[in-house]
Amino acid sequence: MASKLLRAVVLGPPGSGKGTVCERIARSFGLQHLSSGQFLRESLGGGGDAQGGAAVGLQLWSCVMDGFGASLAAFLPLILAPFHCGSCTGFPRTLGQAKALDRICELDLVISLNIPFETLKDRLSARWVHPGSGRVYNMDFNPPHVQGVDDLTGEPLVQREDDRPEAVAARLRKYKDAAKPVIELYKSRGILHSFSGTETNKIWPYVYTLLSSKIPPVLSDEEN
């Protein structure tokens, strides 16, 4: 594990590669990757204590239906409890969530991924997922071995309603409006670092260099 405490958030619109970047950060720097989306899937699936897990799942469901509204902040202690140092993706999505996060921990840095609209639209429209695990496939650059089924389970893949072309533009506009005050908040604190590009592989070396100046890596860039 890393010898220095580090708390980082990776921000970006849907389809920007947040999950991929966080997974690489976790491997390269010995950190833990906290995904609010994964937490929601596990809770809604009834993981953990049967009665308590169901209660959390029901409350989280109302938050999901509300588009990850500020009410999700009430579950921050549950989401963050196991993580003493790590990188988080998918949260915060709103200014209310960012302020709630402030009351629990102080962030060391925030990484913002800036991807062109057309690139995001193409990525999302080509994205299919395995509902049980959340594994994501892209039909253009990361297709499944067999079209339409998950590589590990052989179960059918689905395209989420909000990944369909007609819904993508609305999702991106909604993210832009909600994220703007969050980004401005972290920019005013001097902890925001923005990276622009169309490919995660080209953005990653710059993210790695930034983090290497903050915390010792456990893997070289070439090993990742």
Automatic annotation (TrEMBL):
<dbReference type="Pfam" id="PF05191">
    <property type="entry name" value="ADK_lid"/>
</dbReference>
<keyword id="KW-0418">Kinase</keyword>
<protein>
    <submittedName>
        <fullName>KAD4 kinase</fullName>
    </submittedName>
</protein>
<keyword id="KW-0547">Nucleotide-binding</keyword>
<dbReference type="GO" id="GO:0005524">
    <property type="term" value="F:ATP binding"/>
</dbReference>
<keyword id="KW-0808">Transferase</keyword>
<feature type="domain" description="Adenylate kinase active site lid">
    <location>
        <begin position="127"/>
        <end position="162"/>
    </location>
</feature>
<dbReference type="InterPro" id="IPR007862">
    <property type="entry name" value="Adenylate_kinase_lid-dom"/>
</dbReference>
<dbReference type="Pfam" id="PF00406">
    <property type="entry name" value="ADK"/>
</dbReference>
<dbReference type="InterPro" id="IPR000850">
    <property type="entry name" value="Adenylat/UMP-CMP_kin"/>
</dbReference>
<dbReference type="GO" id="GO:0004017">
    <property type="term" value="F:AMP kinase activity"/>
</dbReference>
<dbReference type="InterPro" id="IPR027417">
    <property type="entry name" value="P-loop_NTPase"/>
</dbReference>
<dbReference type="Pfam" id="PF13207">
    <property type="entry name" value="AAA_17"/>
</dbReference>
<comment type="similarity">
    <text>Belongs to the adenylate kinase family.</text>
</comment>
